Amino acid sequence: MTFFIFLLACCAAGATGIIFKPGAWYESLEKPSFTPPDWAFPVAWTTIYLLLAWAGYRLTLIPGSEVVLALWAAQIALNTLWTPVFFGANRLVAAMVILVLLWVVVAAMIVMALQLDIITGLILFPYLVWLSVAAALNFSILRHNR
């Protein structure tokens, strides 16, 4: 049951992508050559959200994981916020700030999770990699579309 609570939180975050679609505005932006193809985004995010839910569930089973779980909650809130700011409000600078904060929170969460349980920490690592790609994309789009 606990896994499904984490999965529900991830689905809520993912739902912002259904509500705030990239659309014509995003298509008109100059994007870097390393922009993944459109099909890669739902595949990556579905995988990441499943891993996030699994990691959250595993953390609930580990004594002393309260701070890491608080970071989990912070990252899902920031994750949920980014899409409406970027795609909904078209605020590239604010989205970049959110993404930097999200990256820092996830990095801290991974470091702390690794100290508690190496498997859980490793489960979270692909998320940080994808956020690094997202940050590079966000920054490049910001820089080339003033």
UniProtKB/TrEMBL annotation:
Entry annotated with the keyword Membrane: yes
One Pfam family hit: TspO_MBR
Entry membrane topology: Multi-pass membrane protein
Gene Ontology BP annotations: tetrapyrrole metabolic process
A GO CC term attached to the entry: membrane
Chief location bin: membrane
Subcellular location as annotated: Membrane
Residues passing through the membrane, by range: 39-57, 69-87, 93-114, 121-142
Sorted UniProt keywords: Membrane, Transmembrane, Transmembrane helix
NCBIfam families: T-richsensTspOAlph (NF047825)
Family: Belongs to the TspO/BZRP family.
Entry protein name: TspO/MBR-related protein
